[in-house]
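Researcher: I'd like a structural prediction for the single chain below. Treat it as a standalone chain; there are no partners to consider.
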Amino acid sequence: MSTRRIEHHPILEVPVRKEVTFNWNGAAVNGYEGEMLSSALISNGVDIFGHHPKDNSPQGIFCANGQCAQCLVICNGKPIKSCMTPLIEGMEVRSVEGLPEAPGEDAHVETHDIPVSDVDVLVIGGGPAGLSASLELGKRGVSTLLIDDKDRLGGKLVLQTHKFFGSVKDSFAGTRGYHIGEILAHELSGHDSVKVWTGTTAVGVFSDGLVGLMKGDRYHLIRPKKLLVAAGARERMLSFPGNTLPGVYGAGAFQTIVNRDLVRCSERILIIGGGNVGLIAGYHAIQAGIEVVGLVEALPQVGGYKVHADKLSRLGVPIWTGHTIVAAHGDERVESVTIAKLDDSWKVIKGTERRFEVDTVLIAVGLAEVDEFFHKAREFNIDVFSAGDSQEIAEASAAMFSGRIEGLKIARSLGLDIGEIPPEWNEKMEILRSKPGPIKKIEAPDDEQGVMPVIHCDQEIPCNPCSSVCPKGSINMEGGTITGLPWFDSEKGCIGCLSCVGICPGLAITLVDYRDDPDRPTVTLPYEVWRDEVEVGKEVPVLDEDGGVLGRYRVDRVVSDPRFPGTLMVQLKMEKGVAKKAAGVWLQETVRDPSGLYEKEPLPDEAIICRCERITAGEIREAIRGGIRDMNHLKAVTRAGMGSCGSKTCRPMIQRIFREEGIDLGEVTDRTDRPLFVEVPLGAFAGVGGDDDG
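Model: Treating it as a single chain, here is the predicted structure.
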């Protein structure tokens, strides 16, 4: 197997899989049966899946979520999305060079009517919201069909190796995301009234109340009494020169390849966007053995949780706020990237450009609701509900509450007596959706005796596992609320059990123990990366809360508690004057210097807006300046939005150009969305297809 495979991971278990052989452009290569074809190709060093027919530009993986068509390849003579196609033995796969050839005259095929299946509730999306809603419906015996287009349930939970925030009691705080997905899926399997179809894509909602689904290669029509859209979110894209080069990934695509498929698709990355998604993706990259050159955020401060940013900083990742990406450079894939500082008017300050050699640019600049099914269903007067990110972008813990609430609303709408929906569910959901609060420091106790936790969490976020797990009740939440800052009550004392260190999702609690040596107390630091970097006897750099190096210290012991799998607790002795300041182990000691200034200022008009049709910002701007105020007109004139993704990526960027040109979006006619929302072979509508399993 290729060296791009992740054979060892500090958090994830590497499963035993069956190796199979397939052909890529005539050469035999290997992969694992059932993995997505795109990941099998990437694991073999294939980053370019073809070239665009318009300008011969290279095409590679972008969303890894079936939302675009950048990963198109020809498989056994047919164009398919490689990110949604499971690998089987003997596949003949080749790159798409120009337009795919249309097949010759086919022999007569038998067509069949498409049967219609009735169900009380159809749930689109098997992520945290869809699973939670289906659980509530299953508990009440409601006939429910839950579909998801992936090969397993969990949605984005499958990609999350970090421990979740929120409440231990209500939202699995302190438990890793992928494990939460497994727990919910297991609970759901106990409810016979809920049928689950994985590998199934919703392709359209129709005026006669039917919903079209592709399950494997076969088309199905479902008539639900109630429809719940919990399809999650898709990532927003940025317009900059080089934004379509292979190696420019959405953060979710990167996490899918690295965490779900265990393929190390990069050597060196730069992250654009300082929200939780970007910060977490950087942490995931380091866990996968990938160097993170830095993270760029346009705002003056990161928008995600400070504890996430602190985890990156303590691992040696520089964070540049008030900066933006200027351009990505390379011929066939990303080879370098230029960033620059922004002024108060969000303009690039000339002379501040810096260029870094990277092979991947990870875009994490926000999410957009996948809500087209919801709006189309409302247009057709279908009784429809939404939950999770399809309703409002928020953390997965909030999505679980959203799903539970909507599940009960649906049950009530079906005439079931469910009683009152617990009012605290809405309150907790809103708390979990809340933005991070102000930063304020709670100082550690002055005592230098006994043993005590030192809490490096100084931003109000909804999270309380440390107080829930303390056997002495010594850690309290300020104000008695889940969003209060945790503080240590020294009068109740500490027994040094390390529970708070092991469970903290932000790795923001350390333990200082003066009992054996008051002058050189033992400090326990949480650690979730590579074990060989903190072997006993090794000297490691220890950082304070702000990322400053306190010195190098010898590792005395590494503790692993089965209650907190994946979290190591590194113990070392430090001088008492700095012991309480210690916050983490510095892993990535090499700081990459810029390789030189970017000498040619890129033309903003060069940036590709419509990836499918290769339409630039300049072409769209010219049409707008020519008087076009209708997205449908713009599509007809420029072809922007006419591609196979159905404008999922380019629409927000086109709207931005309208705003930049001084046009109020209220004066712009939005494009008309029509089914289908996903590409479907025509034969499927005539009942021509293979097995449901593909």
